[in-house]
């Protein structure tokens, strides 16, 4: 039944698509550090898979089945990865986490960001750790005399089972609490009973999204966990940025090496939002032309 609901949701989305492009080829050039990304408001390189409006549910179901199969494969690989297998790339899982986060923290596009949305990692889901990144933002405010204030940080709150998610502003780890799945989320109101700032109502744009996922390829395709929360939210935010004449945010995903798959392995629909860059333990993999400037 869940698959049927997903098919119906995808079919409805397809009917609203007016212009769908194909994803660009990615550069094979990884680099350990990024540079500031300057992109126009309308980014023609953040695009979607081509699919005709009259595609039937059988084709969509085949796509969803391919996604389910890959999710199962990647979950098993992450769960069964032994220390010896991890050491084949010369780094443990904790070492991978530190390497990935260090790349982000040293990147100019992170340092120059004023507002960002980032996920709170969950070890049970085998997600790349983000605690070091969050600590850098929450525990290290700007020194006295510096003109740049502490970054605004928004983290996800899942609202329901219909792919609705919010990004709420936090100022401390104390603003987070474990939900029923033991994933840390912000409460909608703070300790004083005030509503937390929702990024969709913020007066300033978000510069950067740090995104999780199960699998990625080098042309920007991302495989999530099947709920559609990030894809739906990213589309809503990009529409908001367009309406307000803001620069589109830079979408960066974090990934262990085992999660990077061959091009074509990830089946996509027009609902799937591609990323701009991918950070693995070996460095930054730029996807679109703006991100590719980091290879220069």
Automatic annotation (TrEMBL):
<keyword id="KW-0460">Magnesium</keyword>
<keyword id="KW-0547">Nucleotide-binding</keyword>
<comment type="similarity">
    <text>Belongs to the 5-formyltetrahydrofolate cyclo-ligase family.</text>
</comment>
<dbReference type="GO" id="GO:0005524">
    <property type="term" value="F:ATP binding"/>
</dbReference>
<dbReference type="InterPro" id="IPR002698">
    <property type="entry name" value="FTHF_cligase"/>
</dbReference>
<dbReference type="GO" id="GO:0046872">
    <property type="term" value="F:metal ion binding"/>
</dbReference>
<protein>
    <recommendedName>
        <fullName>5-formyltetrahydrofolate cyclo-ligase</fullName>
        <ecNumber>6.3.3.2</ecNumber>
    </recommendedName>
</protein>
<dbReference type="Pfam" id="PF01812">
    <property type="entry name" value="5-FTHF_cyc-lig"/>
</dbReference>
<dbReference type="InterPro" id="IPR037171">
    <property type="entry name" value="NagB/RpiA_transferase-like"/>
</dbReference>
<dbReference type="GO" id="GO:0009396">
    <property type="term" value="P:folic acid-containing compound biosynthetic process"/>
</dbReference>
<keyword id="KW-0479">Metal-binding</keyword>
<dbReference type="GO" id="GO:0005739">
    <property type="term" value="C:mitochondrion"/>
</dbReference>
<dbReference type="InterPro" id="IPR024185">
    <property type="entry name" value="FTHF_cligase-like_sf"/>
</dbReference>
<keyword id="KW-0067">ATP-binding</keyword>
<dbReference type="GO" id="GO:0030272">
    <property type="term" value="F:5-formyltetrahydrofolate cyclo-ligase activity"/>
</dbReference>
<dbReference type="GO" id="GO:0035999">
    <property type="term" value="P:tetrahydrofolate interconversion"/>
</dbReference>
